[in-house]
Amino acid sequence: MLPGDPGRALALAQTLLVEPRMFNHHRGLWGYTGPARLDSEPLTIQATGMGGPSAAIVLSELIALGARRVIRVGTCGALRPELKLGELVIARESVCRDGTSRALGAGERVRADPGLTAALIAAAPTAHAGPVVSVDLFYDERSHRPAGTHATSGAIAIEMESATLLALGARADVPVACVLIVTDTFTDDGPRPPTRARIDDRALLSAAESMGAAAVAALGGDRMSAA
């Protein structure tokens, strides 16, 4: 399970693992491992940091260590007005507007693993499912306009890491899926910069717990269906 934020990695480990053990703290990218509370199966929760380059390093090393199923558990900005703060988004695919996924050989879009994605949708039936777009710039007011260039791609949300992780998983033949919390919404005021609304810390923690529970259930469900 790959959150971007080290603090969220710790919070998820405390919620989802039995006696979590820290196994990594290099460069501030905290990682934890232990039996999952849901089914006692081994589960690793490792922060990736921000952006595709950092995420690519982390996932590459986890695959080398034996990772076999991966779910990104991150955050996103809404590109559709129906998405509300704290709601979950499941990425069916990512539009590659970042540099790292293209360096990995991805085309215009890269698809999430169908089996893991179906398991996520079953575990979080109220989540919004659709394309997301991955970018390199966090502060880019043009990309966050509801009618902006990224929204016209059909993407319902915007973030920074999923295209890289999906592309790398496809290249390594490792199933990767993605579930995100809507932490930012934007209102287009015409010529002015978009107005941003940001989720508060308490709502974010509650949403993260729901997201983590869905992800660990999906990992378990996908394992059972594969068997």
Can you walk me through this structure?
With 227 residues, the chain is an alpha/beta fold. It has one domain: Rossmann fold, CATH 3.40.50. The chain has helices at 6-16, 52-65, 99-103, 114-123, 162-172, 201-226; strands at 21-24, 31-35, 42-46, 70-78, 88-97, 109-111, 128-135, 157-159, 176-187, 195-198. A five-stranded mixed barrel has the order 4-8-7-5-9. A three-stranded antiparallel beta sheet has the order 1-2-3. Helix 1 (6-16) packs across helix 6 (201-226), helix 2 (52-65) runs parallel beside helix 5 (162-172) and helix 4 (114-123) packs across helix 6 (201-226). The longest helix has 26 residues, at 201-226. The chain is globular, with a radius of gyration of 16 Å. The model has no long low-confidence stretch (mean pLDDT 91).
